[in-house]
Design a protein that fits this description.
Chain A is mainly α. Chain A contains nine helices and two strands, in the order αααααααββαα. The chains are: A mainly alpha, B alpha+beta.
Chain lengths: ~200, ~190
């Protein structure tokens, strides 16, 4: 059990997709201007990641090495299209807010990267723990990032007014430029924190 | 990974099988979700029509030259206005707007954004009540964007950081006068 927990924990910090591996940045930069969008994007990506890691770890023995990447993409596309229709049918508000970023999950390198690095080499059970860990790791950074951007950009958090009517919105934080600024500072701070914790322990 | 089975036939079979199973699965998903998606769209359209023709109690679909018009009537069957949905290019994609008009007064009653892909928080603010109010009682003519509180009925107040989206909405709505006047002559 400890082994599985270690795999799960990996995604939260040590190999966090966003601030350690620096992958999956396309949705990270694009949709994190409100907390609700960031959280929904994390969950949608997570669903695709978990489903495709399960399927790929199950059928890895049948996929010839030469066509493994196209095979992974086909499987990922299937789950992304499912997510797109599912959200459109049952959560139309979220589907409207995320719009074209849902189809773009296909090209999120976090998902393809985990298939290649993990699901295609490990047992299904290990793959599930990896996928869930990566999902939680991806989602918490997205939520933190969007909380910072929404707070400075709109003065709100998840739509609730925090800074009051007197606050002048910083439009830059909502625009893509704000995503780069926030992500850069955040990655810097988290890595500094990581180094400090690491040196205290060692 | 099955390293030794890399013959071309094996590659083709693998991809075909995965593709076919995926397509089969998605065909099922489509059948399952599409009624819900269409229902949401129909309900959104109905809500939009009632929103842009506030005095209407019910509406009727009328087709003139392949263009669908929604004629609104009040409880005494009096004609209260006509709504039409128009599309045009926005900043990030197509914008579709339901526009309610009063052809006799040659005025726009209200608008409602049906679909758009504008930037959340910026261009997407075209859907907000505060922006849509700009179009209430706007005349059938070219509208103007201003960067201050509007004083004339044809003036639309800009949204900071969303110039392109506002421009797009203005251009789409400005077309409605000609389209409606063609079939609903009104009092002019």
């Amino acid at each position: 059990m400890a082994e599985y927990f270690a795999i799960f924990k990996n995604g939260l910090w040590n190999e966090n997709p966003i601030f350690k591996l620096i992958i999956g940045l396309c949705p990270t930069l694009a949709v994190t201007n409100t907390v609700v969008n960031g959280f929904a994007m994390g969950l949608a990506t997570g669903f695709v990641l978990i489903s495709s890691e399960i399927v790929i770890s199950l059928i890895k023995k049948f996929i010839p090495n030469d066509v493994r990447i196209p095979s992974f993409i086909l499987i990922i596309v299937t789950f992304v299209t499912f997510t797109d229709y599912f959200l459109g049918a049952f959560f139309p508000d979220i589907a409207d807010a995320l719009a074209l970023f849902i189809p773009l999950i296909v090209v999120n390198c976090l998902i393809l990267g985990r298939q290649e690095a993990f699901a295609s080499r490990n047992s299904t059970r290990r793959a599930i723990f990896d996928a869930v860990g990566m999902t939680v790791g991806f989602t918490w950074v997205l939520v933190l990032l969007s909380a910072i951007r929404e707070l400075f950009g709109f003065g709100t958090l998840a739509g609730i007014d925090i800074l009051g009517a007197g606050y002048t919105d910083m439009i830059i934080m909502i625009l893509p430029g704000g995503a780069f600024l926030t992500l850069g500072v955040l990655v810097g701070v988290l890595n500094l924190l990581d180094r400090k914790v690491g040196s205290d322990n060692g | 990974m099955a390293e030794k089975n890399n013959s071309i036939g094996r590659l083709i079979i693998t991809l075909t099988v995965i593709g076919a199973l995926g397509a089969l699965f998605l065909a099922g998903v489509y059948e399952w979700t599409i009624p819900h998606i269409l229902e949401h769209e129909a309900r959104a359209r109905e809500r939009a029509i009632m929103e842009v023709l506030p005095e209407a109690d019910y509406y009727e679909e009328v087709t003139h030259n392949d263009k669908i018009f929604y004629e609104g009537y009040d409880e005494n069957d009096n004609f209260v206005g006509v709504a039409v949905s128009l599309r045009g290019g926005g900043y990030a994609g197509e914008i579709e707007i339901m526009i309610g008009t009063d052809p006799e007064a040659r005025e726009i009653i209200n608008i409602f954004i049906l679909n758009h892909q504008e930037t959340p928080g910026l261009g997407a603010r075209i859907t907000e009540e505060q922006f849509r109010e700009n179009f209430e009682n706007a005349p059938f003519s070219e509208l103007e964007i201003v960067r201050r509180t509007p004083e004339e009925p044809q003036e639309i107040e800009a949204i900071a950081g969303a110039t392109m989206s506002v421009e797009a909405v203005k251009n789409i709505v400005s077309r409605v006068g000609d389209i409606v006047s063609e079939y609903y002559g009104g009092g002019s």
